[in-house]
Design brief:
Layout lengths: L2 H28 L15 H4 L2 H11 L9 H11 L2 H6 L1 H10 L4 H7 L9 H14 L5 H4 L1 H31 L9 H15 L10 H13 L7 H5 L2 H9 L5 E5 L8 H4 L23 H5 L5 E5 L15 H19 L22 H7 L5 H5 L5 E3 L12 E3 L12 H5 L10 H6 L4 E4 L5 H5 L5 H5 L7 E9 L5 E9 L9 H5 L8 E4 L38
Helix pairs in contact: 1-6, 3-8, 8-14, 8-17, 10-11, 10-12
């Protein structure tokens, strides 16, 4: 069999592996949907465990590794031997880029598909800058990491959009079915809707703040493939840059012979612009190991072959120059300064709306670990966890925070810590989670019905999940407009028992702005963000024991 014939079989095998990898990614992502009483499998974050960029960034920022992150060494070992095959064979985002690149016009592909650009070194500069930032504790790698980007985009934008399309379409068909003709379309639409409802989506339709920005960035990353094939992988991807460095001395290398007729077909079929058409100038750090060039060659002039480690063939210059390294270092330091200048980034201020999930580490350590993937948001059964914009500063962009007006922290749930791939949110036992304070409820007496309007309302107390109720009532004589008085139960918050779950705010009858609101004050993870001194006298004799220390560390610290 000729080299081209063998390569064509390998190309079909690669496409099958890519498809299986994408389906596995989507299947694991869908499996993170909340299910009552079920615990999350550690395999849900396996893609992040296989990501050496996440491992490297977390280790540089925290000097520790989390969970099964050492599985990333498997990816490194495969890259050292086979080259950058993870990008070409397994990466689900790379598979999407391949699919979009296939839509390019054939003429455009012939003009520029295999043309190497010095701008492809940009990803190496981005990698160096991000690693410098991580070394000083700013873990922003998740913003550009392909798994962080893809998971965040699917969680906050793509899947919610599909949910709306499927649900609204099924509803419209159901409402219009009698008017559409003799064949009932509901025979098709209803089973499809039930499948998505029961197998893909959770019971509550998710909605996320800032989803449009995430969707636009994701769409831009895909559309740019129409400008250059695998644009993101060529110019931006820091994981690809890291794997490219590991692959420069891989023993599986492209070999070119004198039989080459310089037809250029190998270059036109190369999605990485790795220069397979130039003998001695092939770029192993750019090559995806896709075998397209070998399959396209009509005279078997190129083929992959094994070369010993100690016989490093001369390759093209696809590395970083000294000047480029200095620029990357300067960019990393500049980025570090920009992200660390705000007072909140320096722990001098606490944003009242920045309510982190239970189990979240102290803010500095949390930001050193979080890769902005959105898995915790996907797993949250009440859609309470939302991506931040500037609440945590630019450094905390797209990290999770609880927004009580959209949802609340379910008292019997601890899924967010179970799906976190870097342990930015720690795995707590259910008992420890129930004792973890993520905030403190505050009553606005200018809006609360029993205070401001003389009307009875006990909604917040009814929904409080704490066994001894963090919200209690004090019966008060309230004067009426026409004279006389009325006895009303006015709610008060027991600060020693409130855990800040937010259900009181979520269920408050005021839908625009709740009369009881939760802020980050009193959170267990921050001993400095405590508005009430331990041992202070409670407002009412029915409160908790004033001698109790209400701010013990739920993690055993």
């Amino acid at each position: 069999m000729t080299a081209a014939g063998r390569a064509r079989r390998i190309v079909w095998l690669r496409r099958a592996v890519q498809t299986a990898g994408l389906l596995l990614f989507l299947g694991l992502l869908i499996a993170t949907r909340p299910r009552e009483g079920a615990e999350a499998s550690p395999w849900l974050q396996v893609w992040f465990d296989l990501d050496p960029l996440v491992l490297t960034g977390t280790w540089l920022a925290t000097h520790s590794v989390a969970g099964l992150s050492l599985l990333a060494l498997i990816t490194v070992a495969a890259t050292l031997i086979l080259g950058r095959v993870f990008c070409g064979w397994l990466c689900p985002l790379g598979t999407l880029h391949n699919a979009i690149s296939a839509l390019r016009r054939r003429g455009a592909a012939r003009r520029d598909m295999g043309r190497f650009s010095p701008w492809q070194r940009l990803k190496l500069g981005l990698l160096a800058a991000l690693l410098v930032m991580a070394l000083f504790g700013v873990h922003w790698l998740g913003v550009l990491d392909p798994f962080g980007l893809l998971t965040r985009s699917m969680t906050t934008a793509v899947l919610p959009a599909v949910d709306v399309i499927v649900g609204d379409s099924a509803t419209a068909i159901y409402a219009a079915d009698p008017r559409l003709g003799s064949f009932p379309l509901t025979r098709i639409s209803e089973p499809v809707y039930r499948f998505f409802r029961d197998r893909v989506f959770s019971g509550q339709r998710p909605a996320f703040d800032g989803a449009m920005l995430v969707a636009l960035i994701f769409a831009a990353a895909l559309v740019l493939n129409l400008v250059r094939p695998r644009f993101w992988c060529r110019y931006v991807c820091p994981l690809g840059a890291l794997l490219g460095l590991f692959s420069r001395r891989a023993p599986l290398r492209l070999r070119q012979t004198d039989a080459c007729t310089h037809c250029g077909r190998c270059a036109m079929s190369c999605p990485a612009a790795a220069q397979p058409e130039k003998p001695g100038e092939w770029l192993p750090g750019e090559c995806f190991g896709c075998w397209n060039c070998v399959a396209a060659c009509p005279v078997d002039a190129v083929d992959f072959a094994w070369e010993p480690f100690w016989r490093r063939p001369r390759a093209g210059s696809d590395g970083v120059t000294r000047r480029g390294a200095i620029k990357a270092l300067a960019a990393g330091v500049a980025g570090l300064l920009v992200l660390r200048l705000p007072p909140q980034a320096r722990a001098r201020a606490y944003h009242p709306a920045l309510i982190r999930p239970p189990g979240a580490r102290p803010e500095r350590e949390f930001l050193q670990r979080c890769v902005q993937c959105g898995l915790c948001m996907k797993a949250c059964p009440t859609n309470a966890l939302q991506p931040t914009l500037l609440e945590a500063g630019l450094e905390g962009l797209w990290t999770p925070m609880l927004v009580p007006r959209l949802g609340y922290c379910e008292y019997e749930c601890k899924l967010c810590g179970e799906v976190c791939p870097t342990e930015a949110i720690q795995r707590l036992t259910l008992a420890a989670k129930k004792e973890t304070r993520i905030g403190l409820a505050v009553i606005d007496t200018t809006r609360c019905l029993p205070y401001a309007y003389g009307r009875s309302c006990i909604v917040c107390e009814e929904h409080c999940p704490v066994p001894d109720k963090a919200i209690y009532f004090v019966e008060t004589e309230v004067p009426l407009r026409g004279g006389g008085t009325r006895t009303l139960k006015q709610p008060k918050v027991d600060a020693d028992r409130c855990i800040g779950c937010g259900i009181c705010e979520a269920k408050c009858p005021f839908r625009d702005r709740a009369a009881i609101r939760v802020t980050s004050a009193g959170e267990s993870r921050h001993p400095d963000n405590q508005p009430i001194l331990p041992g202070a006298e409670p407002l009412d004799a029915g409160g908790a024991d004033p001698a109790a220390d209400s701010y013990g560390d739920p993690y055993g610290g």
